[in-house]
Design a protein that fits this description.
Blueprint lengths: L6 H11 L12 E11 L5 E12 L13 E5 L15 H4 L12 E5 L23 H15 L7 E5 L1 H12 L7 E4 L8 H16 L13 H14 L3 H7 L3 H16 L4 H9 L17 E6 L11 H5 L6 E6 L14 H14 L6
Parallel strand pairs: 3-4, 3-5, 5-6, 6-7, 7-8
Antiparallel strand pairs: 1-2, 2-4
Helix pairs in contact: 3-4, 5-6, 5-9
Length: 363
């Protein structure tokens, strides 16, 4: 297992979570792992040890009543990890001094979801025998990490992108009094159906149909299936205006595809990807949207292939949120299709509005 925790980082984390000295530099990320013993999945399966990897920035602060008042949980998308948010287009816009989520004031928690990053996943050794996890399991594990390991008893904000967006709605329903504000980015709070379900099914069917798949017990990656999967993922995350501008000729497009496939095929694992896509199978928070007590600032973009605005689902469902607002960002040369969720400069003004309207912006 790739261990990203240095002894220095572990020592700093121990001091913070024991109520001791602060991190030497609140802007520097520190990483750690929490091992949950005998974790039970909604499927009825279990793991004797579920490893949850995470990254944190800043330190927790407690109000006069002893409750943590500055913790922010940020949830990544399918195939990503907490590191997805350490890029300049996200962290560089939000986490720096004087920024909206200044890590000198906020305690930022970036978990790797089950099956992702350096958390427990099929490619660790169980392969196709890894428990068939679902989003509900991922949220339960996140809650255990936050409360049992990090000792955070309240969240100032839960924000999520794509899969993390969907899990943000689930957090609002399952823990309505635990969170001050919610910011889901790039998703819909309804079952995954229609074209959204179809492109996911196409990936799963391609993997299962590849002769090299061997029921998940392959000796070498089923590259034919992974080529299909990588192509579907590329189209799902694409932005027409940006692609046309950056790939204006046939040669440019062909060269891009060749480089993209080379990079993706060197990184993808078929068992990991299969489980990641399959985890969305029973997602459906639509029945309990009225239970979400926290203010919700929900932002999608008009050029999102996965959540196309012409379905009018968001415009309908937002009316069921007691304190919800839906924002549709118009497609432009500045948006990035589904991936607009990680370009914080485009939507940070809505985050500011949410923080200002939902309480104190931290200690």
């Amino acid at each position: 297992m790739k261990n990203l925790c240095t002894w220095a980082a572990l020592a700093a984390l121990a001091a913070v979570f024991a109520g001791g000295a602060a991190l030497a530099d609140a802007s520097e990320p520190a990483e750690g792992e929490y091992v949950v013993r005998n974790f039970s999945f909604a499927s009825g399966e279990s793991l004797p040890e579920l490893r949850l990897h995470y990254t944190v920035l800043g330190k927790p602060h407690r109000d006069p009543a002893g409750r943590v008042d500055n913790a922010v949980l940020i949830l990544h998308g399918t195939g990503g990890s907490g590191h997805s948010f350490l890029q300049d287009k996200f962290a560089g816009v939000l986490f720096g001094p004087g920024r909206l989520l200044d890590t000198r004031r906020y305690f930022i928690i970036l978990p790797d979801g089950i099956g992702h990053g350096d958390s427990s996943k099929p490619s660790d050794g169980l392969h196709a025998r890894f428990p068939r996890y679902a989003y509900a399991d991922m949220v339960a594990a996140q809650y255990a990490l936050v409360t049992e390991w990090l000792k955070v008893d309240h969240l100032r904000l839960v924000m999520g992108t794509s899969m993390g967006c969907m899990q943000t709605f689930m957090w609002g329903e399952s823990h309505p009094d635990f969170v001050d504000a919610l910011m889901p980015l790039a998703c819909l709070p309804v079952p995954i159906a229609g074209r959204n379900r179809v492109w996911r099914d196409l990936i799963l069917e391609a993997i299962k149909a590849d002769p090299d798949w061997q029921g998940g017990d392959y000796k070498a990656e089923p590259t034919r299936a992974l080529r299909t999967a990588a192509g579907m993922l590329l189209i799902a995350g694409s932005a027409p205006l940006a692609f046309q501008a950056s790939l204006p000729t046939a040669q440019a497009a062909d060269e891009f595809v060749a480089k993209y496939m080379q990079r993706e095929l060197s990184a993808l694992d078929a068992n990991d990807l299969y489980h990641q896509i399959d985890a969305s199978r029973d997602y459906d928070p639509s029945g309990d949207l009225e239970k979400i007590a926290a203010p919700v600032m929900w932002v999608n973009s008009a050029d999102d292939f996965i959540n196309p605005p012409e379905l009018d689902i968001a415009q309908r469902e937002v009316k069921r949120l007691p304190h919800g607002r839906f924002v549709l960002l118009p497609a432009s040369t500045e948006t990035h299709g589904h991936g607009t969720h990680t370009w914080a400069a485009i939507w940070q003004n809505y985050l500011k509005e949410l923080l200002d309207s939902s309480g104190s912006r931290g200690p």
